[in-house]
Amino acid sequence: MKDILLKEYKLNNMLILKNRIVMAPMTRAKATDELVPTDAMVEYYVRRSSAGLIITEGTVISEDASGYNNVPGIFSEAQVKHWKKVTDKVHHHNGLIFLQIWHVGRVSHPTFLKGKLPIAPSETEMTQRLHRSENLIPGKSRAASVQEIQEIIENYAIAATNAIKAGFDGVEIHGANGYLIDQFLHHHTNRRQDNYGGTPENMARFALDVVRACGEAIGYERVGLRLSPGGYLNQIVGDARDAEVFKFLLAELNKLPIAYIHTGNFDDSQKFSELNQMTMTEFMRKHYHGTLIGCGGYSFKQARENIENNLFDLVAIGRPFIANPDLIDRYIHEKPLVPYHNAMLDTLY
Ligand code: PHB
Predict the structure, then answer these.
(1) Pairing outcome for strands 260-263 and 292-295
(2) What is the structure's pLDDT at 82?
(3) How far apart are CA 37 and CA 233, in angstroms?
(4) One of 156, 179, 232, 288 is an active-site residue; which one?
């Protein structure tokens, strides 16, 4: 019987993955100062075209969506033009590639925002240093106005449209890991009293507005969403009430023909008290009925077992893909993997 990881997977009527191993989104911060992808980035992605699906590094939807230097964007003509080089070559190698679209919200600093405070659902304060800019502490954020929220939703839709212009097969909306969308989904960072806060329905509204804006712009089949129902990164503190927000969100997502949802976690063995002692992936499997990408430190063996046991449908692999551009080939031929080292982040091999 064929290894389940190497079987193709029909995501929907538009997209068929040639295997079940997805390249996870990973920040590389190697774009130009204008946030334009470089030729080295073209080659980096092309070398990994044998993945069933590549999900790119987080790519900012607008100039003020950023909290890191040299992450790529998808709002200028030059950015679209250079991303097109990536997608053309990946397609030439029979690959599929989604662009991860990103707004960091409060995980930023006035340095990146022409002196303005970072935006978030509510006023908050972060005390941890930004791990990619170690001399900066995000500090205070300000509450987004309703008008700003509407503008950001519009910017997501424009980014999704630009992604299609740049030749991507779809977009993954980054709704995980304590960035803007996730900040709306957790009580710790969302204390709004208006239509975007206070109840599960209101707290899920921003995420759903973004999904719908992108779905209407480029087709729901081309839209995925990454979520972290447990609070663990970027100083999001879990709250027992968060589960109801995610249950509401997942129930609404069940009604939309989106491509998939995807776990945002570095270690998916972690169980969360706010999720009834489930892992993020177990919780999402319980409440969401479409395609689920499991992510968070899985070995191939665990991934096979979890797909066979129906915990998830596809596995996303991160760091091993940095160390092994030919990961799929090594897996097929049972060749040993090159171990990952942080020093590998210095180059884009
Ligand atoms: C990171 O740059 O380390 C990073 C970015 C996005 C994530 C998680 C981590 O979702």
Answers:
(1) parallel
(2) 98
(3) 27
(4) 179
**How much is the pTM?**
0.98
Report which residue type is found at 144: A
Give bridge partners of residue 201 from the DSSP assignment: none
| Pocket flag, ligand 1, residue 177 (CB < 6 Å) | yes
Closest ligand 1 atom to residue 179 Cα is 10
Binding site membership of 67 for ligand 1 (Cβ less than 6 Å): no
Ligand 1 mean position to 179 CA, how many Å? 9
Domain that holds residue 58: 4-346
From residue 333, how far is each of 26, 31, 200, 304 by CA, in Å?
25, 34, 48, 16
Atom 2 (ligand 1) nearest CA: 27
Binding site membership of 264 for ligand 1 (Cβ less than 6 Å): yes
CA 132 to chain centroid:
18
Q: What pLDDT does 140 receive?
A: 96
Among protein residues, the one whose CA lies closest to atom 3 of ligand 1:
27
Report pLDDT for 2.
86
> Which of the residues in the chain have pLDDT under 70?
none
Spatial contact of 180 and 152, defined as CB atoms under 8 Å apart: yes
Q: Report how far ligand 1's centroid is from the alpha carbon of 265 (Å).
A: 10
Q: C-alpha distances in angstroms, 182 versus 132, 177, 187, 248?
A: 20, 7, 10, 14
Q: How many domains does the chain have?
A: 1
User: What pLDDT score was predicted for residue 131?
Assistant: 77
CATH number for the domain harbouring residue 120: 3.20.20.70
User: In the prediction, which pLDDT does 129 show?
Assistant: 87
* CA of 143 relative to ligand 1 center, distance in Å: 22
